[in-house]
Amino acid sequence: MAVIAAATRRALLNVVSSSFRPKSSSAIRVQVALLSTAHKSDEGSGQDIRLSDITEKDDFVGIAASPFPKESADILMAPVKAEDVEVKPDGLLYLPEIRYRRILNQAFGPGGWALMPRGQPTMINNEGELSQLVIREFALYVGGRFVAQSVGEHLHYSKNELSTGKALESAKSNALMRCCKDLGVASELWDPTFVYNFKKNHCVEVWCENARNSKEKRKLWRLKRQGNDVLPYPWKPTQSQN
Description:
The chain is of the alpha+beta class. It is built from 6 helices and 10 strands.
């Protein structure tokens, strides 16, 4: 069994357990622990905690033990700003992942939350479309407490020359967004009335054709404040739907 330095072991237990740790810290059986920090930015980021052997009971430590303080809850459930909202080509509204990180950092402080991978990633290749779907499950912890768990996914095309590492990071960001939904972050984005009004006032549909198959055409969404250059490959604007 790998030997973990005492300082590293203490830091690990502080991140995972905090004030909501089980009565006996020996309940967390660590054989190998790898602590790594996610790609840093000037906004900060959460930590990835990877444990090779955690009991099933410990996976959900502190679940629903108590509500978060009002100060944190107010930050988490604050109304979204229209200028922060983006739209995907299929019309789905979303916040960029950095917005979720900022909100978590404001609510709990850098290092006060962590996104932990569950198992290995799954990669599904589609040779016909030259695309790859990356899927991985993550769990969100705050102050050592289990908060939420969700699957993240990302579809990318070989034309985009996106590395596997970046694709995995995108899947991680997708899982973070889904986990934050349980905390009430940007809940308006799942409110049909808000979605309808936002798309009516801030979005536009554009007829596009597939660059690899000109017979395939469809309408895609973009923000009014953006140009058609934001439309993803292999789609490009067309003047006619015929």
